[in-house]
Amino acid sequence: MLSYERLSKKPLLFKSFTGLTINEFDDIYEREIVKRYKKHEIKRLSKRDNRKRSIGAGRHFKRDLKDRFVMLLVYYRLYITYTLAGFLFDLDQSNICRDIQKIGGLVRACIPIPQKIYPITKRLKMPAEEVEQYFPGFLSFIDCTEQQIPRPIDKEKRKMYYSGKKKRHTVKNQLMVNNRGFIIHKTDHHKKGKKHDYDVYKKDHPVTPKQVVNVIDLGYLGIEKDFPEQLSALPCKKKRNQDLSPEEKEQNNSHSIKRMVIEHTICRLKKYMIMSDVFRNRLRKYNNVSQT
Questions:
Q1: CA distance 108 to 112
Q2: Overall pTM surpassing 0.90 (yes/no)
Q3: Per-residue model confidence as pLDDT tens digits over 143-176
Q4: Are the C-beta atoms of 291 and 172 separated by less than 8 Å?
Q5: Can you give the residue range of the structural domain that contains 106?
Q6: Which residues of the chain have pLDDT under 50?
Q7: How many H helices and E strands in the chain?
């Protein structure tokens, strides 16, 4: 039976299964999850207006809080089926579904998700010191990423979600990260996989303080004209039948090196198979999963 006690005896396996080291796991668990768990459960169980029994009198979880946290991370990291997860944790697959769903909200409350950070950073009159705290070097990096979904049954939805770039049905997300790879802003998933990166930006673009430069690629060509109030840095575009000058090539190379931070951030996200494999869950759950 898989458990924290068993996995923690093998640090390499623990990180492979959960994506965290034992120290990182213990720090989040002791510093945040244990302290907030009681209030989270009271709030969750108080939502029912017609409740007849007192809080705490209903069905109890079969595994303790620490094992359920491990269960959530293993599910996100490996993206196994509920049936296999039930076999590993010695639970019925309905218990796996219930446990992951209930603890997911607590985990989102304990970690610095973009939904919490962005309202602070979008204030345009922030002091320069506070701006640099969230945007070291006064730089932000924006890019989009796609994830495959199962082929929709409905014909109209198939057209809506089909991505000509990926040659499959996808949803698209846009991320903004700082120089250290922390995600400052993340859009909800866009239903149209064929939607262009710049179209996503025009519909839902992050607002940054006036000192911050948004470093982007040529997928966002036209941003300087359409959003002159936002400082932007794009690479040089090659003109038809004309090569780039050595200075322009050097500038593009430097630009690409700077943007590696957002590529590495997307790579870290996709190490969790739930963000890189075909998303089998219902799409209404996608935003909560991807924010976690």
A1: 8
A2: no
A3: 999 999 999 998 888 888 888 888 899 999 999 9
A4: no
A5: 4-110
A6: none
A7: 15, 6
